[in-house]
Amino acid sequence: MTSNPNYVDRKRLLRRFLEYVQIDTTANTDSDTYPSSPGQWTLGRLILSQLHEQGIADAEQDEHGLVWATIPSNIDGLCPTVLFNSHFDTSPEAPGNNVRPRVINAYPGGDIHLEHNNAKITPENSPELEGLHGKTLIVTDGRTLLGGDDKAGLATIMELVSCLIEHPEIPHGPIRILFTCDEEIGCGTQKIELKKVAAHVGYTLDGGGIGDIDEETFSADMALIRFIGKNIHPSIAKNRMANAVRAAGLFVSQLPSNQLTPETTDHRDGFLHPYDLQGGVGEATLQLILRDFDTAKLADYKQLLVDLAKKVELQIPGLRIEMETRRQYRNMADGLKKLPLAVELAERAYAKLGIPSRRSIIRGGTDGAMLTEMGLPMPNLSVGQFNIHSVLEFACLDHMHSAADVLIELVQLWGQQRA
């Protein structure tokens, strides 16, 4: 039983979500532009027009493609400004062009057969399905990802905007909206200044099943390793060639395989993950991500790579290996300690709606993790996205609806606080 009227327009929420996912916003790691793909500009312009249609006077798409908006306070007295954030881009780990969403009303249980490659979503590969009987699900045709990460968040926040504009009787303080680009490739906050954000607290809408309040993320670094060999015609290569491809293969083969991998870890265990390998005999490059909830362990993972590089250099005469690591983001838990009320009020919002909630961790990161590190406490809330970065991705409309209800409760709770 909810504590407020049903402000959310379910059909509009679904319509917007379906519209958003059909715009290709795949982030491009090889691009030297920001945002990295033109579809992010396209989706941003669409959402900007929708904000303007609702009378949001200050809505803008800035020179970097980010979309900003403000809903002014409608209550007396100073109270904290709350930011809501989601991102335009989708992961490059699965195709994101020509997405063809399909709506399943009242999911009856069992396997969901997709159209391409005999793909199917099953309770075995997606155990979350067992709790979704009777719900409205949105799936793909099995050829692309869906884009629920994070267009479910975009649609939910836009529904919040519509509800607050249509129902001025909902009391709330100042609300800031920020939609970012290139979150999936670690650049979501690259063009953000906290001065412009101008908020006291924030929430990303970029999570899974309803009720999760993410208060911890991985700490993350990226490693780029260059294998510099010596190329020469193979007919005269004896004692002269140093094959960078073989060196990269040897390096990967000696990485831990029974531990410290995504395939063998869960919960709070960290990992080293080689995810991209390119090159030829003369030079090859390997990219890895380093992840752990304990930030100090990232230095241990880096040292493991350094030691292995030295070992491989000795095994292939003439080979040279260069390595650099780049800081990506840090565990949001430390920053959230500065404002425990951010998580506490989210719990109260769920409780007012009778929805069980859980404090949880993300084996990944969000723009909120980076903004928290910059000084803006920003936990992550669930919004009904499942099997992300995969052609088996699906979203739950009922969870998006509930997430919008939670945001309506949350802005009222923050409106009762004093800045």
Topology:
Blueprint: H1 10-21, H2 38-53, E1 60-61, E2 67-71, E3 82-87, E4 102-104, E5 112-113, E6 120-121, E7 137-139, H3 148-166, E8 175-180, H4 194-197, E9 201-207, E10 212-217, E11 219-228, H5 244-253, E12 271-279, E13 283-292, H6 297-315, E14 320-329, H7 333-336, H8 341-352, E15 358-362, H9 367-374, E16 380-382, E17 385-386, E18 394-396, H10 397-415
Parallel strand pairs: 3-8, 3-9, 9-16, 10-15
Antiparallel strand pairs: 1-2, 2-8, 4-7, 5-6, 7-18, 10-16, 11-13, 11-14, 12-13, 17-18
Helix-strand string: HHEEEEEEEHEHEEEHEEHEHHEHEEEH
Please give the count of helices.
10
Cα gyration radius (Å): 23 Å
Question: What is the third-level CATH name, the topology of the largest domain?
Answer: Aminopeptidase
Find the CATH superfamily of the largest domain.
Zn peptidases
Second rung of CATH, namely the architecture of the largest domain = 3-Layer(aba) Sandwich
Largest beta-sheet details: 8 strands, mixed
Number of strands: 18
Helix content: 25-40%
End-to-end separation: 31 Å
Class based on secondary structure composition and strand pairing: alpha+beta
Oligomeric assembly:
single chain
Mean pLDDT, all residues: 95
Low-confidence stretches: none
Domain count, please report it: 2
Placed side by side, the strands forming the largest sheet appear as 1-2-8-3-9-16-10-15
Principal-axis shape equals globular
Percentage of residues in DSSP E strands? 15-25%
Any idea of the CATH class of the largest domain? Answer: Alpha Beta
